């Protein structure tokens, strides 16, 4: 059963932008929908477009911001003026209406939360010179995001029903799983680095594993498959990059996260600009 328009308006603004709306604001948005004779199947898209334009005002939106009626009226008026202008004439795309310059210090800072298993907005202010802690945090976030994408891959996701012809699901191990298990084969995900002695190692969040030489450079996050021997070194049999993930799958999970602070695109906008 479809939601009433008032509930749908409040849901769209809060779900993606954490905005709260007063009764006057909701009534104003309802008037807009009625004024333009928006069909029921297009209501959600229209509200989302209005919410995105509103949250583009005055830099990144506050996660707890209450929508102001005067600002929303100004945003709506600007949208009307843009539609009546000469943004796209005769099939020619106006680059200035789509190209935006974003201040790196105004972008919201997002970190991966292991507890919440998702992105969490950081309240700390960005600085020109990062600290040693920020570098470690960036690498941890990068590892966690890549690991989540790997675990979502069909080769690593256990299937509810398995047929005889289906291959066994791959299983990721951690460096801490190697201790006392010499002679066994493991599949690890980590970053290639060199220790204090200059030896090539694979590092994850739990520790370090020494590896044999290969053709991948330092700083790469790679998947390695090999046998852990008595000398506490993994003899690598195969090494490769983590599997890629299609944009549509990533968007279904994190499409609501505004990484740049300029609003998120709707599914229809992606289709329009051929982002698949």
TrEMBL record:
One of its GO terms (biological process) is DNA-templated DNA replication. One of its GO terms (molecular function) is DNA binding. GO terms for cellular component: epsilon DNA polymerase complex. PANTHER family: DNA POLYMERASE EPSILON SUBUNIT 2 (PTHR12708:SF0), DNA POLYMERASE EPSILON SUBUNIT B (PTHR12708). This is Uncharacterized protein. It comes from Clathrus columnatus. The lineage of its organism: Eukaryota, Fungi, Dikarya, Basidiomycota, Agaricomycotina.
């Amino acid at each position: 059963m479809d939601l009433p328009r008032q509930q749908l308006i409040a849901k769209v603004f809060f779900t993606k932008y954490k905005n709260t709306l007063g009764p006057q604001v909701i009534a104003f948005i309802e008037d807009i929908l009625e004024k333009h004779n928006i069909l029921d199947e297009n209501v959600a898209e229209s509200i989302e477009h209005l919410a995105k334009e509103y949250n583009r005002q005055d830099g990144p939106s506050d996660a707890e911001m209450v929508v102001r009626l005067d600002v929303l009226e100004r945003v709506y008026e600007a949208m009307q003026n843009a539609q009546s202008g000469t943004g796209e004439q005769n099939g020619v795309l106006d680059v200035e209406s789509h190209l935006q310059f974003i201040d790196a210090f105004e972008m919201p800072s997002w970190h991966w939360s292991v507890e919440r298993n998702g992105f969490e907005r950081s309240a700390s202010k960005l600085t020109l010179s990062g600290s040693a802690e920020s570098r470690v945090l960036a690498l941890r976030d990068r590892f966690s995001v890549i690991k989540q994408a790997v675990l979502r891959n069909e080769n690593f996701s256990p299937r509810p029903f398995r047929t005889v012809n289906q291959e066994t699901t791959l299983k990721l191990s951690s460096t801490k799983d190697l201790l006392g298990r010499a002679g066994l084969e493991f599949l690890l995900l980590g970053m290639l680095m060199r220790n204090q002695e200059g030896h090539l190692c694979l590092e994850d969040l739990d520790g370090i594993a020494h590896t044999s030489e290969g053709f991948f450079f330092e700083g790469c996050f790679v998947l390695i498959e090999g046998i852990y021997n008595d000398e506490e070194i993994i003899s690598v049999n195969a090494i490769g990059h983590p599997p890629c993930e299609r944009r549509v799958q990533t968007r279904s999970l994190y499409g609501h996260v505004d990484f740049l602070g300029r609003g998120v695109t709707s599914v229809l906008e992606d289709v329009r600009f051929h982002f698949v």
